[in-house]
Amino acid sequence: MLILGLQKTTLLDYPGKIASTIFTGGCNFRCPFCHNRDLVIPPKNVIAYSEDEILTHLISKKKILDGVCITGGEPTLHSDLPEFIKKIKDLGLLVKLDSNGTNPDMLANLINSHLIDYVAMDIKHSKEKYNSIANMANFDLSNIESSIEILMESNINYEFRTTIMKECHSYEDMIEIGKWLKGANAYYLQSYKESEQVINPIFTPHDRNTLESFVEILKSYIPNTNLRGID
């Protein structure tokens, strides 16, 4: 595991839980709006956490923590992720996984092995425009579709979420995404926010009224659609 960050306590990353958040390094997407540039493209001189450091922290805080959020980067790029999660589960902690959905086999394995308790999967765009944001050299939408199907057919708690930008997302896009994710448990729209770590800071957020109108469109397909992290 390449672990490049640790937030020791958070009330935001794991809905309804007190958690620590672990940030893995490396990602197969190059989303220009991503605010975790140094996780997506780790600097050569980066200093990583050891698994022992992470587990020592979790053991010391086990009495106050409900769980752990594993995010990135893209955690499922790491083949030893299941073994690492098992060590966390052995401490009696819940595990939430944040993923871009490009590794459905890993996702299915984690669910079937009861190693994760909650999944937040990013949805970048409508099917037709997906790679306009993901920017993968060899993009395979079928992996994304498989991960969506796995989550929607499972008994695990999950959500889909999309970071919305004025330059990229329109009313028509919301309709297409709504049709695609129809019947999902939960869908959250997150507004783009400027940050020093944004890979390509050329984007702007929609205003709140527009975001709320997007939510109303989506509720026709996914009743549990909400805004998240809007000031």
Keywords summarizing the entry:
single chain; 231 residues; alpha/beta; TIM Barrel; 8 helices; 31% helix
Topology:
Layout: E1 3-10, E2 19-24, H1 37-40, H2 51-60, E3 67-71, H3 81-89, E4 94-99, H4 104-112, E5 118-122, H5 130-134, H6 141-153, E6 157-164, H7 171-180, E7 187-191, H8 208-219, E8 225-228
Parallel strand pairs: 2-3, 3-4, 4-5, 5-6, 6-7, 7-8
Antiparallel strand pairs: 1-2
Helix pairs in contact: 4-6, 7-8
Distance between the termini: 34 Å
Number of extended strands: 8
**Would you list the SSEs in sequence order as H and E?**
EEHHEHEHEHHEHEHE
Poorly predicted ranges: none
Percent range for β-strand residues: 15-25%
CATH superfamily of the domain at 3-162: Aldolase class I
User: Strand pairing plus helix content: what structural class?
Assistant: alpha/beta
Q: What do we call the CATH topology of the domain at 3-162?
A: TIM Barrel
CATH uppermost class of the domain at 3-162: Alpha Beta
Give the neighbour order of strands across the main sheet: 1-2-3-4-5-6-7-8
- The number of helical runs is 8
Shape: globular
